[in-house]
Structures are given as structure tokens and as C-alpha cells.
Design a protein that fits this description.
With 327 residues, the chain is an alpha+beta fold. It is built from seven helices and ten strands. The strands form two sheets. The protein has a seven-stranded mixed β-barrel.
């Protein structure tokens, strides 16, 4: 698929490698995890420890709860965090930019499986588009410095900062709401909307900038949509998920296409692109060693269902022609 050529840019090891990074986070966890009011939450001091080239690294940092749904303690016991390193010459966290950390909703094996599945949703989109947030899976050891919060070990996802993505893709973020979906760059938009259909995600909106970031490239007259936050989808399916009220499905495992109407020739171009990427996508999941057998098989089956739709002209017409958006 023809996409704008990206300039080369390296931001260090954090998102260039895909090995699982093990880190210890030490701080007042009770104070941090309970500070969830979106209007007055503040940054809290933490220390991050990890191994780099067989050397223990101590990184002072600040952390703050973030998000909307998962920040609400009635929905999730462990909120997502924003982490700001306080030492820019760190060998891995070599930035003062805010880095998102996605925690499991609660400290259970089931919730950890959801986090790993969401990680793979990001990785699948990395396969499909350079205009995507890079991620790093981390094994987290949370230690409360005052003993007021039970220590625990879990998995999480570190997400590439917006400014890193912008520099890597030679773009600038646009924070303007109201830009209609069909006004964005068509080759990227069509891949993005088909990807959202693949993972069974309807929880996004371009005009409202809901789980979508927009970027401007000097060589283009239209902006580039980049999706994020994939927990409310059939691919991940945590217990709290449900479709938005405006979407005519009853379960997130049901797919519903929210892409714009395209001529069959253009639609086939996108379909062919996804078919060429199938081996890489399937190999990504097949090579996993963290998912349970049941979860892995469910994911592979869910992806196969998507490709079965792409191979059936009647289903293609029903899903992507008869059900497309005319905005």
C-alpha cells in the first residue's frame, strides 16, 4: 500500500526492542492508586529499577493516574498511569516525555491475559501501518515503600509518547475536534477502519478525537488518523466491555464496520493488502508464549473469521458496501 515515506528516527531502546522489559516500581502505591479524581490528580514520586547490560539502573520518576473508564475505581482496581522520567540520560527511558503505562484492570491472571491481548492489538496495527503507536510489554513488580499496599507482580503496556511518534513519522499532532472521518488521508484511513473491524472495535471517533490522534504531514493536504486504546473490542473482551449505544450490535465480539463507502476497486485494494499481511499477523500470535491455550485459540479463530469474511464476495458486500458510512 502506498504510504508517505517516513524519515529515519531512533529514540532509543525502549520501543525498538520487543523483548519483555522487567521493571520494579517503588513508591507510595496506596496514595498513587487512590489519587484518581481526573480534576485534581497529581504526580507522585516513584523509583523505577531495571537491569540494563547486567547493571541495575535506578531511575527517579513521577507517576499519575490517567484515563477515564479504567481510572474509575468502580470499574478497575488498578488505574492506568502516566510516567515522567526525571533523568533524560537514562539508557532506556531517555526522555522527559510523558509515557503511558497500561495496567491490568485488577491483579488477576484473567486481567493479565486481557492486557497481553491488548498489546497484540497494538502490535497487529504496527504490522499494518507505520502511523501507529509502538508499544513495549513490561513485567511489573509493584513495591509499596510504606507497606500500606500489597506488593504484586503483573504485566503492563508502555505506549510510545505522541511526540516520539510525530518525530518518527515527520508529522505534527493536530488537536482539533470536528474533522470528519472522510477528510483524513484515505490510504491510512481505510487500513485503520479495516483494522478496527478486524479487532471488533467500535469505540472510536475521528471527529470527537475519541481513541484517535490526528497528525499532519507537510506533503499531504489531509490529516492522518492514528488509533489507540483497544480494550473495548472483541479481540480483547474484558468483562466490562459493551458496544457504544449508537452501534447496532449487542456484543463486542460482533463486528461492525465503521469505515467510509468506497468503490469496489478501492475496497479490494485494502482487502488485498490485509490478505498479504495475514501470515505476519498469524505468526505474531502463534509465536506467543504468554497467552493461555484457550485465549490464543480464541484469538486465532477470531482473526480467521475476519479473513473468511474477506474471502467471501457476498459477505464483503454486506459488511463493507451495504453497511458503509456516507459522511
Amino acid at each position: 500500500m502506498c504510504i508517505v515515506t517516513l524519515s529515519s528516527y531512533a529514540q532509543g531502546n525502549l520501543f525498538e526492542e520487543q523483548s519483555i522489559l522487567e521493571i520494579e516500581i517503588i513508591g507510595d502505591l496506596k496514595e498513587l492508586f487512590n489519587d484518581v479524581n481526573p480534576h485534581n490528580a497529581r504526580y507522585h514520586n516513584i523509583i523505577i529499577y531495571y537491569l540494563y547490560a547486567d547493571t541495575s539502573v535506578s531511575l527517579p520518576a513521577k507517576a499519575m493516574t490517567r484515563g477515564i473508564f479504567r481510572r474509575d475505581k468502580s470499574n478497575c482496581k488498578i488505574p492506568p498511569l502516566a510516567i515522567k522520567p526525571q533523568k533524560i540520560n537514562d539508557p532506556i527511558f531517555n526522555t522527559s516525555q510523558r509515557i503511558k503505562l497500561v495496567n491490568p484492570c485488577m491483579n488477576t491472571q484473567r486481567a493479565q491475559q486481557h492486557i497481553i491481548k491488548e498489546y497484540y492489538a497494538y502490535r497487529i496495527y504496527n504490522i499494518l501501518s507505520d502511523y501507529s503507536f509502538k508499544v513495549r510489554l513490561v513485567r511489573l513488580i509493584y513495591l509499596d515503600r510504606f507497606g500500606k499496599y500489597k506488593n504484586f507482580i503483573t504485566y503492563g503496556i508502555l505506549i510510545e509518547p505522541v511526540k516520539w511518534l510525530a518525530k518518527r513519522t515527520n508529522t505534527k499532532e493536530i488537536e482539533t475536534q470536528g474533522i470528519i472521518q472522510n477528510a483524513t488521508y484515505r490510504p491510512v484511513l481505510d487500513v485503520m477502519t479495516m483494522f478496527q473491524y478486524l479487532i471488533g472495535n467500535t469505540d472510536w471517533s475521528v471527529p470527537k478525537l475519541h481513541n484517535i490522534k490526528l497528525f499532519y504531514h507537510d506533503s499531504l493536504t489531509s490529516v492522518i488518523p492514528v488509533p489507540y486504546d483497544f480494550d473495548f473490542c472483541g479481540f480483547v473482551t474484558p468483562p466490562y466491555t459493551k458496544p457504544p449505544e449508537i452501534i447496532p450490535i449487542t456484543n463486542v465480539r460482533e463486528r461492525y464496520y465503521r469505515g467510509n463507502c468506497r468503490q469496489m476497486l478501492e475496497l479490494n485494494f485494502t482487502i488485498d493488502f490485509f490478505i498479504r499481511k495475514k501470515p505476519e499477523i498469524m505468526n505474531l500470535i502463534t509465536a506467543d508464549s504468554l497467552l493461555t491455550v484457550r485465549n490464543k485459540n480464541e484469538i486465532l479463530e477470531y482473526i480467521d473469521m475476519f479473513y473468511n469474511t474477506l474471502s467471501d464476495p457476498k459477505l464483503v458486500k454486506r459488511e463493507f458496501i451495504d453497511n458503509c458510512r456516507n459522511e
